[in-house]
């Protein structure tokens, strides 16, 4: 199960906080699948990637309640935490950079805090997509802002790179090997 974190709704489309959705949508486009199923407060697309059935998930909760969708979906589909990747924004990375991690704390990210609370573990894989720190605006306004024209090419590269990393892992590579290859 690959979960992209974001806020649902037109008002939030293409914002910094929705980079998780952008990566998941990139994968859906690659495999020509649509988010045509709704279950446990999430939109789901099913793709076959490297002969693996993969659920691409966009929680329909607000970002800070993402775990409300992730935990029940994992239970319902009997998905082990070792088969979960969560894709989300990270202000500690430069815009357009990605970083893969095998586990860790929420690092102040409320969406990740919610996933930890509802999965009862910090031991899930993450792909962090850099959105940089705000300059002269609040964090809330920053994460809900859109990328500048100058930033868009770097972000598209990041979305492609993150999707490539997911495919690489699904080809049977260990996540450690995937981290070494893409970090």
TrEMBL record:
GO terms for cellular component: cytoplasm. It is found in: Cytoplasm. GO terms for biological process: protein quality control for misfolded or incompletely synthesized proteins; rescue of stalled ribosome. PROSITE patterns: PEPT_TRNA_HYDROL_1 (PS01195), PEPT_TRNA_HYDROL_2 (PS01196). It comes from the Bacteria. InterPro entries: Pept_tRNA_hydro, Pept_tRNA_hydro_CS, Pept_tRNA_hydro_sf. The record marks 7 as: Discriminates between blocked and unblocked aminoacyl-tRNA. Its main location: cytoplasm. Its EC number is 3.1.1.29. The active site is at residue 17. Belongs to the PTH family. Monomer. This is Peptidyl-tRNA hydrolase. It comes from Ligilactobacillus pobuzihii. The gene is pth.
